[in-house]
Automatic annotation (TrEMBL):
This is 3-oxoacyl-ACP reductase. Belongs to the short-chain dehydrogenases/reductases (SDR) family. It comes from Candidatus Raskinella chloraquaticus. It holds the Pfam family adh_short_C2. Gene3D superfamilies: NAD(P)-binding Rossmann-like Domain (3.40.50.720).
Length: 258
C-alpha cells in the first residue's frame, strides 16, 4: 500500500537500533527522507548504511536527544519536519523506594519533557504546511503498570495525558498525535531485562525468557519490523482521521476490552 508520504522528512529519535530503527526502516521504505539518531556513531552509521540500501535519503546525527544541544542538532539537520517519532530509553527497573528525587526528575525529563520540547519545536510548522504526524513510543505499562517500572510508567502516562488535549487543537490542520504502547519486543533492551531478572532470581536466562514468552497469547515476542509497520501507517495519509490515541501492540498480553 502506498502510504502517501514519499518525500516527507521524518525525524526518528533513538533509532540506531530496536524499535526506533524499526520505525526508521519502515519510513525509509515508504520513501521518506529520514533523520536517524543515536549516541554511538559506529552503530548509527551501520544502521544508516543498512537503510541506504533501499535508496532512501538517510541523515545520521549522533546526539543525546535528552539534551537541548542534542535536540537542536537534530532539528538543524532535519529542517522542516513532517513526521516526528519520539523515542527515548526509559529508567531502569527499580523498586520505587529506591527512586530518589533526582532520579524522578531525570525520568520525567527523558520520557515526558524531552518529547514535548521536540513537539513544540515542530508542530507550528506542521500546522502551517497542512501536514504533520507525531508518534510517541511509550509502553504497555501506561495501560497496565508494572511494579518496578513505576517511574517509566508515570512519565509516559504523563506524556500521554499532556498530549491528549494538544492533539485535539491541531487536528483541523491535518496534524495528528498518537502513541504506540509496545509490549515485549525482541530487542537488546528486552534481553538485558531478562539477564537482570535471571541474576536477581538465580534462574537461567533461557528459563526467564521462556516464561515471559509463554505468558504472551501470541507465544512469541514482537519484531521491530512489525512495530515499524504500525508506526509508518500512523504517519500515512490514510491515518489522517486517527489522533489522540494510544495503540497497544503486545501480542494480546494485556487483557482489556478497550
Amino acid at each position: 500500500m502506498d502510504l502517501g508520504i514519499a518525500g516527507r522528512t521524518a525525524l526518528v529519535c533513538a533509532s540506531s537500533k530496536g524499535l526506533g530503527k524499526g520505525c526508521a526502516k519502515a519510513l525509509a521504505e515508504a520513501g521518506c527522507r529520514v533523520i536517524i539518531n543515536g549516541r554511538t556513531m559506529a552503530s548509527l552509521e551501520a544502521t544508516a548504511d543498512e537503510l541506504r540500501h533501499s535508496g532512501a535519503d538517510i541523515i545520521a546525527i549522533a546526539a543525546d536527544v535528552g539534551t537541548p544541544e542534542g535536540r537542536q542538532a537534530l532539528l538543524a539537520a532535519a529542517g522542516p519536519v513532517d513526521i516526528l517519532v519520539n523515542n527515548n530509553g526509559g529508567p531502569p527497573f527499580r523498586n520505587f523506594r529506591e527512586v530518589d528525587r533526582d532520579a524522578m526528575i531525570a525520568g520525567v525529563d527523558a520520557n515526558m519533557i524531552t518529547p514535548i520540547e521536540l513537539i513544540k519545536a515542530v508542530i507550528d510548522g506542521m500546522c502551517e504546511r497542512g501536514f504533520g504526524r507525531i508518534v510517541n513510543i511509550t509502553s504497555s505499562s501506561v495501560k497496565a503498570p508494572i511494579a518496578g517500572l513505576d517511574l517509566s510508567s508515570g512519565a509516559r502516562a504523563g506524556l500521554t495525558a499532556f498530549l491528549a488535549g494538544v492533539a485535539r487543537t491541531v487536528a483541523m490542520h491535518n496534524v495528528t498525535i498518537n502513541q504506540i504502547m509496545p509490549g515485549a519486543f525482541d530487542t537488546d533492551r528486552l534481553k538485558s531485562n531478562f539477564e537482570r531478572a535471571a541474576q536477581s532470581s538465580g534462574a537461567p536466562v533461557d528459563t526467564v525468557t521462556a516464561s515471559r514468552r509463554k505468558a504472551i497469547p501470541a507465544q512469541r515476542f514482537g519484531t521491530a519490523d512489525e512495530f515499524g509497520a504500525l508506526c509508518a501507517f500512523l504517519c500515512s495519509t490514510q491515518a489522517a482521521y486517527i489522533t489522540g490515541q494510544s495503540i497497544l501492540i503486545d501480542g494480546g498480553a494485556v487483557v482489556t476490552t478497550l
